[in-house]
Amino acid sequence: MNAFANSLAVSAAPPEIVPANTVQNSNLRALLAHWERLRGNEAMPAQPRVSREIAHLLKYVHFSDVIEDGENFRFHLIGDAVFQGLCENQTGKLVSDHPDMGVRLRLPILMREVVRTRQPVVGLAIRITGNANLRADSVWLPFGGPEVKQIMGMTALTPLGPPGSSYPRPDIRRR
Predict the structure, then answer these.
(1) 32 lies in some domain
(2) By the 8 A CB rule, do 27 and 61 touch?
(3) Which of 51, 101, 133, 155 has the fewest Cβ atoms within 10 Å of its own Cβ atom?
(4) Other CB atoms closer than 10 Å to residue 165's CB: what's the count?
(5) What is the CATH number of the domain that holds 21?
């Protein structure tokens, strides 16, 4: 994650949810492939397990516990690079209380879709901060067995341009 990603969002829009097999970012693909291997023939893995194949990604990954069937989510474990620049560690805090309006809007939508479908979800969104306009590609993975109890998420940010620059909305899908 780059330094320009550290600013809080100054604008927020809902994410677009796309099929999991459309993920293009190599790190997000690696995390999804790891999840697929963990689940085997099951609907989802019972619990997260870390292996060498994703060790380099752990600083970008966060785990959230599902509260009341997706009414809210609590950050359980957060990699060092996830919310850089925040004064307060978000571990143990509710997603709905996050200081960044983009996180408060985008993450619950994506995680509720994981709870609803019990499948991996890929989200696309535009992140506008005081420092940059970014495309946020993310993958969200369910764990728990018969019901989703925990979600592993990771977001990859791609610069779209400096603050105040415009971009055509369809560019969000271009990779």
Answers:
(1) yes
(2) no
(3) 51
(4) 10
(5) 3.30.450
